[in-house]
Design brief:
Largest sheet: 5 strands, antiparallel
Structural class: mainly beta
Radius of gyration: 30 Å
Number of helices: 0
Distance between the termini: 77 Å
Strand order of the largest sheet: 4-8-7-6-5
C-alpha cells in the first residue's frame, strides 16, 4: 500500500477554514505578517468637547492627526473646530480654535476654524492645517501664539496665484510638507493637487483641469477622483496619495511629476489578513490591490523579510504604507518593496492590519481583525519606530486610537498517527474501511480566541501511516486553545522539524479515549516578575515592562469608639473592626492596626 501523507496549511477566511495542498518541503515558506494591536488613548466615544486625561476627554469627529518629534499627537478636531494636542502621557489639551465655526486670524484660542481636516507638523514646530470649509490653509505657531492664513483667499473656486493668500483653494483636505524645499502639497475637492512654494507661489501640479477621473500620466494631465490624505517617502522624492473615489493609492515621482498606480497583488484574500501568498503567480482573483475608500495614509520603513538566499538581491529595508479605509473601517498595510511572500522575490502586497475583517464598524480594542473602528480617517506613524506605533483619528468613534505593531511567530504543527496497523480490531466504535483505514481514529484542533479569526487549524487522522504538517501564524498577545483525541502524536513548536527553539506541546495518545485540552501562549519577551501586576507567565526574557509598585502603609487607630474600616483594590481586600481600650486600661491600649501593601500606578483604591 502506498504511503499516504496529506499535508495542508490553513488560513483564515471569514468563519471558514480553507484547505490548500502544499508540499511539506515548502511549508516553511509561508510568510506571516504583523498585525496591529489597537488601544483607545483619548476620547470617551461620546461626541463633545472636554480636555482631560485619556478616555475622560471628548472629541467630535477627529479627522487628521500628526505626530511631532517629541511624541505629541496633534489632532484636527473637525466637529469642534479646534486643534488639540495629546501628550505622550495621554493628556488632551486644547491649543487653537475658539470652537465656533468661522474664520478669524487671532491668538491661539480666539482664532476660528471651520471643519479642519488635514494637519501636518514641520521640523521647526510649525503646524499647518487644511481649514476645509474656510477654503484656506492655516498656520499655527505655538511659539508666537498666533493662527494666521498661509494660503487661500477663502473663496470656494479655483485660482493659482503668485501670492499665496490670493489663490483660491476649494475645500482642502490632505497636506504633505516637504522639509527639504519647504513646499506644502495640498489635495482639494476639485480633485487637484496643488503646491504652495516656500516663496509664496501657489500652483497646480497634478490634474490641471480639475476633472474627477482616473489617468496615470505626467503633471497636469494626470487625473484623480477626490484625493484625500498624502504622505512622503523617506527621502521625500515620492508623494503617495490616497485617491479616495478611485479606490487606489497613487505615487508621484516628484522630480518628473510622473503619476503611477501602486498595483501588484493582495494576500490570499482581503479577509485572510496575516498570510502571504506563497505561489509565484497568484490566481486571477488576487491580482491587483483593491481598496475601499482609502483616506488616511502614512509612510514608514521596516526591516525587509528576505529569505536567506536572497538577502543580497533586495534592500535591507522595505517601504511600507499604512492606509485607513473609510468605508470598510479597516487599516491596511501595503508593503511596497520586499520579500512579502517568503518566496525570495521582491514585490508589493497588501495585508489586513487592524479593523473588522468583514468591514463592520464598531469599537473594540484588540489585535488585528478582532479590533473595530468606525470610519478611521487620518493616520500618522511615530518617527523612528519602524512603524511600530501609529495613531489614528477614529472619526465615527470620536476617539484617537493607538496601533502598535505585533510581530508574529510561525508555529509548526506535526500530527502523526500513533495507531498500529494491526490494532483496528480493538477499536469497535469506529467504522473500518479498506486496507488499514478507519474513519477518523484521531482528531486535532488548534484555535485562537473566538473573537479573533486568526489562523485556525483542525483535522482528522484516518490511516495508521498518516502524517500532517501544518503552519500557523501566532501572536504573543493571544492565547491559543488546543484539543487532541485518539491515538495520535502531536508536536507544536516554533521551529521546522524541531531542530531548535521552543516546543509548546508534545502529546501522544495511545487509545481512542485518550484526550487532551489546554491553552498556551507564545514564549516571548515580557514581564518576568511574579509580583508585578502585568506578570507574564509565558515570558522567557524580561523586556523591562514590569510595573513597579509603591509600598503603602495604612494605619488605623481607635479614637475611643468602636469603628470599622474597609480597604479595597484589584485583587486586594482588607476589613476589620477597631475598638476602645478595655475598662481600666490605658488609653494607648486602644486598637491600632497597621496594614502594608504594594500599590500600583493608575489603579484606583477605595477606603471606607
Amino acid at each position: 500500500m502506498a504511503h499516504r501523507v496529506p499535508q495542508y496549511f490553513f488560513v483564515r477566511l471569514l468563519f471558514a477554514s480553507i484547505f490548500l495542498p502544499v508540499p511539506v518541503n515548502r511549508a516553511h515558506e509561508l510568510s506571516c505578517q504583523p498585525e496591529g494591536k489597537v488601544t483607545s488613548i483619548s476620547g470617551s466615544g461620546i461626541p463633545g468637547f472636554r480636555d482631560g486625561h485619556g478616555v475622560k476627554s471628548h472629541f467630535s469627529y477627529p479627522a487628521g492627526v500628526a505626530v511631532s518629534s517629541d511624541g505629541s499627537v496633534y489632532v484636527a478636531d473637525s466637529g469642534n473646530n479646534r486643534i488639540r494636542r495629546v501628550s505622550s502621557k495621554g493628556h488632551v489639551t486644547w491649543i487653537a480654535g475658539s470652537g465656533l465655526a468661522g474664520f478669524s486670524n487671532d491668538k491661539l484660542l480666539r482664532a476660528e476654524f471651520n471643519r479642519p481636516q488635514g494637519i501636518v507638523t514641520t521640523p521647526t514646530g510649525l503646524i499647518f492645517v487644511a481649514d476645509t470649509l474656510n477654503h484656506r490653509i492655516r498656520l499655527v505657531s505655538l511659539h508666537e501664539g498666533l493662527v494666521s492664513t498661509y494660503a487661500g483667499s477663502g473663496i470656494a473656486t479655483y485660482r493659482d496665484a503668485p501670492v499665496a493668500t490670493q489663490a483660491c483653494i476649494r475645500g482642502p483636505v490632505g497636506l504633505a510638507y516637504h522639509s527639504f524645499t519647504g513646499d506644502l502639497f495640498i489635495s482639494d475637492t476639485d480633485s487637484r493637487i496643488r503646491v504652495v512654494r516656500q516663496v509664496g507661489i501657489v500652483e497646480t501640479v497634478l490634474n490641471g483641469a480639475g476633472i474627477a477621473g482616473y489617468l496615470d500620466a505626467t503633471g497636469i494631465r494626470a487625473m484623480f477622483n477626490r484625493p484625500s490624505h498624502m504622505t512622503l517617502n523617506e527621502d521625500e522624492s515620492i508623494l503617495y496619495i490616497a485617491d479616495r473615489a478611485n479606490n487606489r493609492i497613487r505615487q508621484v515621482d516628484l522630480p518628473t511629476m510622473t503619476v503611477t498606480t501602486i498595483t501588484d497583488f493582495e494576500s490570499p484574500s482581503q479577509d485572510a489578513g496575516t498570510l502571504a501568498w506563497n505561489e509565484s503567480f497568484p490566481p486571477e482573483s488576487q491580482r491587483g490591490i483593491h481598496f475601499d475608500e482609502p483616506f488616511g495614509i502614512a509612510f514608514y520603513t521596516e526591516p525587509a523579510n528576505v529569505v536567506e538566499d536572497a538577502k543580497k538581491l533586495y534592500p535591507k529595508r522595505a517601504s511600507v504604507l499604512l492606509v485607513s479605509e473609510l468605508r470598510s473601517h479597516r487599516l491596511r498595510r501595503l508593503v511596497l518593496v520586499g520579500d512579502v511572500s517568503g518566496s525570495g522575490e521582491a514585490g508589493s502586497a497588501s495585508f489586513m492590519y487592524a479593523g473588522s475583517y468583514n468591514a463592520v464598524s464598531g469599537h473594540v480594542d484588540e489585535l488585528g481583525p478582532a479590533s473595530m473602528f468606525h470610519s478611521p480617517s487620518g493616520i500618522s506613524v511615530v518617527p523612528g519606530t519602524d512603524g511600530g506605533v501609529a495613531f489614528v483619528a477614529d472619526a465615527g468613534n470620536h476617539m484617537i486610537r493607538r496601533v502598535e505593531k505585533e510581530l508574529p511567530t510561525q508555529l509548526y504543527i506535526s500530527v502523526n498517527s500513533n495507531l498500529h496497523p494491526n490494532t483496528f480490531e480493538d477499536v469497535d466504535e469506529y467504522s473500518l474501511g479498506n486496507g488499514n483505514m478507519a474513519v477518523s481514529h484521531g482528531y486535532y484542533s488548534i484555535n485562537g480566541p473566538p473573537n479573533n479569526e486568526t489562523s485556525h487549524a483542525f483535522g482528522f487522522v484516518s490511516y495508521s501511516d498518516e502524517a500532517h504538517v501544518l503552519t500557523m501564524c501566532a501572536y504573543p498577545s493571544l492565547e491559543y486553545f488546543v484539543i487532541f483525541k485518539g491515538p495520535i502524536h502531536v508536536i507544536i513548536s516554533d521551529v521546522f522539524h524541531q531542530v531548535k527553539g521552543n516546543v509548546y506541546i508534545s502529546w501522544k495518545g495511545t487509545g481512542p479515549e485518550d484526550e487532551r485540552a489546554e491553552t498556551f501562549r507564545l514564549k516571548h519577551r515580557g514581564c518576568t516578575n511574579p509580583s508585578a501586576p502585568n506578570y507574564n507567565a509565558w515570558a522567557i526574557h524580561d523586556d523591562g515592562s514590569c510595573v513597579h509598585g509603591t509600598r503603602v502603609v495604612f494605619e488605623v487607630n481607635s479614637n475611643g469608639q468602636w469603628a470599622s474600616y474597609q480597604l479595597e483594590g484589584p485583587g486586594f481586600y482588607y476589613g476589620d473592626i477597631v475598638g476602645p481600650a478595655n475598662e481600666g486600661d490605658y488609653p494607648e491600649d486602644a486598637d491600632g492596626h497597621i496594614i502594608g501593601f504594594t500599590a500600583w500606578p493608575q489603579v484606583i483604591y477605595t477606603g471606607i
